[in-house]
Write a structure and sequence with these properties.
Layout (H helix, E strand, L loop, with lengths): L1 E2 L4 H10 L2 H8 L4 H22 L8 E3 L5 E3 L8 E8 L2 E8 L3 E7 L6 H8 L2 H8 L6 H19 L10 E3 L9 E4 L2 E2 L5 E6 L5 E8 L7
Antiparallel strand pairs: 1-5, 2-3, 4-5, 6-11, 7-8, 8-9, 10-11
Helix pairs in contact: 1-3, 2-3
């Protein structure tokens, strides 16, 4: 985890690590706060990758999959390092693995006026029933437990919005272990993925999903 609101010197150092394409991308943000946070988050990603690859951070080459998942570029084709990143407000979280796909997501836990409608639309029937059964004070955390766990799994798959959120089920009740309950016809313990939840800072919910072994053929 890293904080994205930094002083001038740290911001200048972060910008110096970015590629021309990353600086151009940063310039497209409408708000200064979002642009600065992007630069710090991307520079930190470069530094974390550089440590693991034993190369200078400015030499890191990034590429994107067909549906936008970031990966190391062709120059690092011999490396089996996989990674993913997510941010919420001024907090960014990073996840790394060797040879196994990985996804991470973080969100600020808050009350959303139309959360019940969103859950009814995007959660599976069983997830929605579990969410509606929560005590009202637990529903915001339950909602974002479900949301971050689903997003982390979709990011691990690399399918983006092409993967329907109700095509798999996760646990969501506060206090229950984070688990993938089912994917299609496969139960969670046979799906080939492992999920963990964590709290990177007070008021945040986060989840990470990584391949646990050979996935079933679909």
């Amino acid at each position: 985890m890293t904080r994205l609101e930094v002083g001038f010197e740290a911001l200048r150092a972060s910008r110096a690590l970015l590629s021309p394409a990353e600086r151009q991308r940063a310039s497209r943000f409408a708000f200064d706060r979002d642009r600065l946070r992007f630069m710090v988050a991307r520079a930190q990603l470069r530094e974390l990758l550089a440590v693991r690859l034993d190369v200078p951070p400015e030499s890191i080459e990034l590429a994107y999959g067909e549906r936008g998942k970031p990966a190391l570029g062709r120059h690092f084709g011999d490396s089996d390092l996989r990674f993913n990143v997510s941010h919420s407000g001024d907090v960014a979280v990073y996840a790394f693995s060797h040879g196994r796909e990985i996804g991470v997501d973080v969100e600020a836990v808050r009350t959303i006026r139309d959360a019940d409608d969103i859950a009814a639309r995007f959660f599976s029937r069983r997830e929605n029933e579990a969410y509606l059964a929560l005590d009202p004070c637990d529903k915001p955390l339950g909602f974002f437990n479900c949301w971050t766990r689903k997003e982390a799994f979709i990011k691990a798959l690399g399918h983006g919005l092409y993967q329907p959120l109700d095509s798999f089920e996760v646990s969501l009740a506060p206090g229950d272990p984070a688990r993938i309950l089912s994917i299609g016809g496969a139960t969670g313990d046979r799906c080939g993925w492992h999920m963990e939840a964590f709290t990177p800072a007070p008021g945040l919910a986060a989840a990470v999903v990584v391949e646990s072994g050979k996935r079933p053929v679909s």
